[in-house]
Structure formats: C-alpha cells, structure tokens
Specification:
This protein has 465 residues and is an alpha+beta fold. The protein has helices spanning 33-44, 63-69, 81-85, 87-90, 102-111, 121-143, 150-167, 181-198, 210-236, 244-253, 263-276, 279-294, 296-310, 324-336, 369-372, 392-397, 416-433, and strands at residues 47-52, 55-60, 75-78, 148-149, 342-347, 351-353, 357-359, 364-368, 434-438, 446-449, 451-454, 458-463. Bound molecules: protoporphyrin IX containing FE.
C-alpha cells in the first residue's frame, strides 16, 4: 500500500520554491514529471524529494544510493501511485501485483520458461514476419515519397508482434490507415493514471474531472472488450497453439498444477502482456531510430555490421545477437531514454540509506533511471549519445547497478530477452533495407505516459540502392 510519506527520517533536498498546499510545483509541467525531476536531480543531488499537492515523492538519482535500493536483501519492488493506479486495469497481473500476492509467484513460475533466451527461437519467425509487414509499408512510403511518424509505426509493429507471438492474435495493424484503437485506449488509460498519481482529487472537485473520468471508463471498457475477443477467438479455434495464452489455459485445466491461474487472473495477464509487451519496446525502437537517423557515422557503422553479418538475406535466429554494434545502439538509446523511466523500491525493514536518511519498513523511494543513467559514472558528457559506452571494457569498468532500463531483482522485466531480440532484429532489418532522412529542424520531444516516447519524430524511408 502506498504510504503518504515515502521516507520519514531526515529532511531531503527539495526544489527551492515550495508553496503551501501545492508544494513543489513552480516551473513544472504536469505533462513532464519525469523530465522535470531528471533536470532537478542535477542540482538537488542523489536523493531528493518533491511534494506535489499533498503527496511526497522521494527520488533516488545517484549511483551509490540506487545501488543500495537495488539490494534485494534490504529492498523490494514497491508500487508507487502511478503504477498502483494501474491495478485498476492490471490487478494482480505480473506487472502490478503486490509482492505478497500468490498470483505473482504462480504466473512468474508458469511463464518464466517462455521468456528464456532459448525460448526466443520460437518467436523469431513471427518477429521476422511482422518486420516484413513493416518493410512492405515503408517500401510503399518510399515509392510515394511520404514521410512517416516513427513512434506510430513502431507501436504498430510491436503491438502486432506481442499479439501474434503471445496470443496468436493479429490486430491487423498494418492493414489500417490509423493506429488500432487499442493503442489510443491504452495511451489514454496510462496517461490518466499517471496524472492521477500526482493529483488527489478532493470530493468537492470531482465534478470538474467528470469528463476525463468518463473517457477513462470508456478506454477501460475498450481494453476489456479486446481482452474478451482474444479469449473468445482462442476458444473458438480448433488449431493447436503453444503460446503464452495456451500455457495459461492448459495449466488452468490441470487440477494438480500449483501454478494454475483463475480465468480472471489470466485476463489480467493478457492485458499486462499486451501493454507491457509493446509500448516499451516501441519507445526503445523509436529512440534508437532517432539516434540512427541523426548520427550518420553511427548509422554507417551499424549498417556495415548488418551487411557483414546478415548480407542481403533474412536473418537466422542466431544471427540477431551477432549484431553487437546495433545492440550497443539500442543499449545506449535506453540509457538516455529508459522507456520505463522509474520504478519503486520499498524497505523490507528499518534501514538507513545515502548520507544517513532513515527509512522505516514499508517506506519507499522512486529510482529515477533517467537521472541514474546520467550520473557522473557515465563520464564527462553523460548527455551525449555514444554507443561505445557499452563496449565490454567500459561496462566492466563501471560499478554495478548504474544501468537499469529493465528494473532490478526478482521483479525485473520478464520480457527483457524478448524486447532485445525483437528490437535488434527490427533495427537490423531497417538498416539492411532503408536509408532514413529525418527533418533536420526536428528537436527531440518526449511524451510521458508512464512510459517515454518520442513525439513528432518523422522520417522519410527510402529503399536502399
Ligand atoms: C525495451 C523494452 C522494455 C523495457 C524498457 C521494460 C522495462 C521494464 C521494467 C523497468 C520493469 C520493472 C518495473 C518495476 O520494477 O516496477 C518491467 C517489468 C515487466 N515487464 Fe518489461 N520492459 C520491456 C519490454 C517488455 C516486454 C517485451 C514484455 C513482455 C513480452 C515485458 C513484460 C514485463 C512484465 C510482465 C513485467 C513485470 C515482471 C514482474 O514483476 O514479475 N516487458 N519491464
């Protein structure tokens, strides 16, 4: 349960202009809480706090203090308000479950084998098929000299990939002129819950928010309808399946399976995977493409690697991890813009962190990965894009726990291998086939909706000669 006061002991640095009731809101934008907090970390230091409309948020931004918070013996996952609000959709699904909820362990044990490095072999062909759909779409854009919105296309691609690999369910995304309505319903629901995390609406002010509440209810209903359709489609089918959905459905029919999940919980897991399994990878791909399109020397080096390792054919499963430089481009993009920019850590017992801040059992802090990834351990120019930050020697030279795009500990991302295989495969495919021309006047603008996503970034893909 969220406690009102994250860290009770000691006082923490905070922004200078604190207002009564409103708190630390001077100069901040409700649409960019993560970017604002990341900027504040530069002056406020490794551990600081913000009061926002009666809520206290403690942010851990420095390598040392984050290292402490990542110690699984002392800390565990905590659901900060933005994530806890999402329980309204995900309930005790993997992402939003409290640590003590039995369905977390059951679903983790049941689905973990489907996410090992080896298990990726089973998803490879589908990922290649979806990348082919993107190629076809971009070839059309190339013929028509028509620029495209990168984040929208990457979202289409990743939603289709998780739909087809996890649930053998196609959203038919590439056949649509507009993004699938699942995407806008999901973005609406994530944004609503992020904003509500900052704002406790008093009873007398509720009517002011009636419209956004109604819109949220509509989005939630739409997500539930998609979920029902996924299950209905499976029940009607007579084919054999071996995907995530089938693993859960088969276990549910085995009376003695300790990891059997209820029908309601299977529903939560489906929505969790449909959302967590595409939104984050889509952002990662979009940021990586932004850096590739705006750093010609990096683009050429990455393309040379693809030509050498893949040639002109479609990649075999084993050829994907051989794109070491492309992988570094992805890692570096996730360093500068971790698409899950923050995660919560709660104290298991009374303890002290940093320079003597006391935390009682249950107190929590938010690890701000965007700030951690710009800590001085990353060198003199941590804001610059440099894929060589991920050369093996440089990785070895850095302390542990300074790179956390996939969270930490036993609640770290279950889909990490999946995301990396998919993203490297797609980046390699694009480099192999297309030249990318970005608008030179574009300046990176990042939209926050619990996750991070470039906005307004368009490229003209041109089939490579
Ligand atoms: C670049 C892409 C991705 C990033 C940056 C990312 C990041 C994260 C992070 C930071 C967490 C931990 C959150 C916390 O501690 O509160 C997490 C958890 C999770 N992720 Fe990912 N993720 C990505 C892709 C995926 C994919 C592709 C899937 C599924 C196919 C997935 C499924 C999940 C699930 C189910 C959890 C909850 C795990 C648990 O608590 O047991 N993620 N992810």
């Amino acid at each position: 349960m969220s406690t009102q006061f994250a860290v009770r002991g000691g006082s923490l640095p905070h922004p200078p202009h604190r207002l009564p009731v409103l708190g630390d809101v001077v100069g901040v934008d409700p649409r960019t809480p993560v970017q604002d907090s990341t900027a504040m970390a530069r002056t406020l230091g490794p551990l600081f706090e913000r009061h926002i409309l009666g809520r206290r948020f403690v942010f851990a931004a420095g390598a040392d203090v984050v290292g402490e918070l990542c110690d699984e013996k002392r800390f565990e996952k905590f659901l900060p308000p933005g994530v806890e609000n999402l329980r309204d959709i995900g309930a005790d699904g993997l992402f939003t479950a409290y640590n003590h909820e039995p369905n977390w362990q059951r679903a983790h044990d049941l689905l973990r084998p489907a996410f090992t490095a080896g298990a990726m072999r089973g998803y490879h062909e589908i990922m290649v098929d979806v990348a082919d759909d993107l190629i076809e779409h971009w070839e059309f854009l190339s013929r028509n000299a028509s620029p495209t919105d990168v984040s929208a296309d990457m979202t289409t691609l990743t939603l289709e990939t998780i739909g087809r690999t996890g649930f053998s369910y196609s959203f038919g995304s590439f056949a649509r002129a507009e993004p699938h309505p699942f995407v806008s319903a999901m973005v609406g629901a994530l944004t609503y819950n992020q904003r509500r995390a900052l704002l406790k609406v008093p009873a007398f002010a509720k009517p002011l928010f009636a419209r956004s509440d109604r819109r949220y209810a509509g989005n939630k209903q739409y997500l539930a309808d998609v979920l029902a359709d996924v299950v209905r489609t499976r029940r009607r089918s007579t084919e054999d399946f071996s995907d995530l959905l089938q693993i859960m459905m088969d276990a549910a029919c085995e009376a003695d399976n300790p990891n059997a999940l209820s029908e309601a919980n299977i529903g939560c897991q489906i929505l969790t995977f449909l959302i967590a399994g595409h939104e984050t990878t889509s952002g990662a791909l979009s940021f990586a493409l932004y850096y590739l399109a705006t750093h010609p020397e990096v683009f050429e080096r990455a393309r040379a690697e693809v030509d050498e390792v893949w040639g002109t054919g479609k990649p075999e499963f084993g050829q994907v991890p051989k794109l070491r430089y492309v992988r570094r481009v992805l890692d570096e993009s996730l360093r500068l813009w971790p698409t899950v920019p923050a995660f919560g850590r709660g104290a298991r017992a009374d303890t002290v962190v940093g320079d003597g801040y006391a935390m009682a059992a249950g107190d929590w802090a938010i690890v701000l990965a965007t700030a951690l990834h710009r800590d001085p351990v990353w060198g003199d120019r941590p804001h610059e894009f440099d894929p060589d930050n991920f050369l093996p020697d440089r990785i070895k030279a850095r302390p542990a726990h300074v790179y956390k795009p996939f969270g930490t500990g036993e609640r770290a991302c279950i889909g990490r291998q999946f995301a990396i295989h998919e993203a490297v495969l797609v980046l390699g495919t694009i480099l192999q086939r297309f030249d990318l021309q970005a608008d030179p006047s574009y300046r990176l603008k990042v939209q926050e909706r619990l996750t991070m996503m470039p906005t307004g970034f368009r490229v003209q893909p041109t089939v490579r000669q």
